Amino acid sequence: MEQNKDLIQKSLLFYGDLKKYAISLTYNQEDANDLVQDTYLKIMQYEDYFKDGTNLKAWCYTIMKNTFINQYRRNQKYKLVFDSTDDLSYWENSVSSPSDAADVNYSVSEINKQFQKLPEDKRKPLEMFIDGYKYKEIADEMNLSIGTVKSRIFFSRQQLMELLKDYRS
Predict the structure, then answer these.
(1) CATH class, range 100-167
(2) Cα–Cα distance, 127 to 75 (Å, whole number)
(3) Exposure check for the chain: N or C terminus, fewer CB within 10 A?
(4) What is the architecture, at CATH level 2, of domain 2-78?
């Protein structure tokens, strides 16, 4: 525990440098503050992975860069649309009609049915991954290596895509 406090205190010495780096990545003061905060959260969360005798500053920079890249990818995947107008009629008209719901329900039930066809040893890691578990957590829970978990998830996704090939657009 004492070593952990020492690591955190040492990493706080780089706060100014990390803040400048965050601004250079985000070009936005608020986003930079969030990135620095997320970085320090991960430093505390993963402090056990830091190896004594290695470059702490480089480790902190790497965490920040990876955090930024992951957030960027997530944002690109979900491109949020913000509308500052007070006219809500646009949003009301963009909602799917009730007749669309039948198609959606059918698709979801078909996906679930095909998902249940996967073998248990492949379905469970994918199910846990979808539920938000990290590879390490899945590996620990199922008493498997991380590589095995990753390959099972990959092959399960491939098999599920094959089973649902008629639903691809």
Answers:
(1) mainly alpha
(2) 23
(3) C
(4) Orthogonal Bundle (1.10)
